[in-house]
Amino acid sequence: MATRILVVDDEPAIGKLLVYQLRGFGYQVSYIEDGLLALRRFALEQPDLVLLDVMMPQISGWEVCRQIRACSSAPVIMLTAKGADPDVVTGLGAGADDYITKPFSMAQLQARIETVLRRAERVRSPQNRTRPLPRRDPYALATGTRFPADQPKPPSRLPHPTAQAAPSQRLGQRVREARLSRGLSLHQVERVCKVRWEFLQAIEQENFSYVPRNELRRALTVYTEYLDLDLRELLGRPKPAPSQPLIPPQFAIVMALMVVLIVVGLYLL
Question: Nearest-CA neighbor of 96 among 122, 121, 68?
Fold first, then answer.
């Protein structure tokens, strides 16, 4: 039977291209754009391998990988534009079997797919077989919600299961709308603001945990200032009240008139 591969990428152009090319190699391929729905699909289909993008809305590819690894030993290959060492370490630490940086050739991808499949087959061989992981639904692990088998499609806007306190639930949408209204691409903003485009994308998708903590504040400040947005308003914080003068204006006027009258009186004396 053909190897079953699940492709998870929030960019339909990339996902559909991968499906087309991988089917040409003889694989049985399915594609889904959303990380949470991908966990549900994984539980239903039990694919032989997962090709997983890192940058996705609602839940990152790293977290999807962790949830899959909690209940399955199926190989996972991360596909991402982030190739720095800390990003690779994070992906492998989440349980990924391999990590490919975009752009990549299909020949390289196929070779890596076959490599991790051979490795997984050796692990599953009788002499290396260990106690199997419990069959649990990774979608249920991620969301804390179970759905009956006859309801394959869960609600589309579930909260991130391990989300940290986000700056604002509407911040990303407001920023994205402001950028699109000016006809700007993420790469154009990257050149002007000197902020990596994937960090800008993470802000728009409200995937704030993807941006390093020491970079998030600067990225938010620079990006919103460039788009003429009030960051405090987007964060839902009240504007500071204008400072009140120590002496009320009316009292100051009266005091000034009294000083003038005293000076005039002294002069006349």
Answer: 68
Which residue, 200, 210, 157, is CA-closest to 180? 200
Question: 23-27, 119-123, 179-183: lowest mean pLDDT where?
Answer: 119-123
pLDDT for the residue 182: 86
Q: Which token pair is 181?
A: 């209204």
Could you report the per-residue pLDDT of 159-196, keeping only the tens digit for each?
343 334 444 457 888 888 888 888 888 778 888 888 88
Q: Strand 49-53 relative to strand 76-80: parallel, antiparallel, unpaired?
A: parallel
pLDDT digits (tens, 9 = 90+) for 220-249: 889 989 988 888 887 776 655 565 555 666
Q: How many CA atoms lie within 13 A of 35 on its CB side?
A: 26
3-state secondary structure the chain: CCCEEEEECCCHHHHHHHHHHHHHCCCEEEEECCHHHHHHHHHHHCCCEEEEECCCCCCCHHHHHHHHHCCCCCCEEEEECCCCHHHHHHHHHCCCCEEEECCCCHHHHHHHHHHHHHHHHHHHCHHHCCCCCCCCCHHHHHHCCCCCCCCCCCCCCCCCCCCCCCCCCCHHHHHHHHHHHCCCCHHHHHHHHCCCHHHHHHHHCCCHHHCCHHHHHHHHHHHHHHCCCCHHHHCCCCCCCCCCCCCCHHHHHHHHHHHHHHHHHHHHC
Per-residue pLDDT at 156 exceeds 70: no
Report the DSSP beta bridge partners of residue 99: 78
Residue indicated by tokens 């002069």: 267
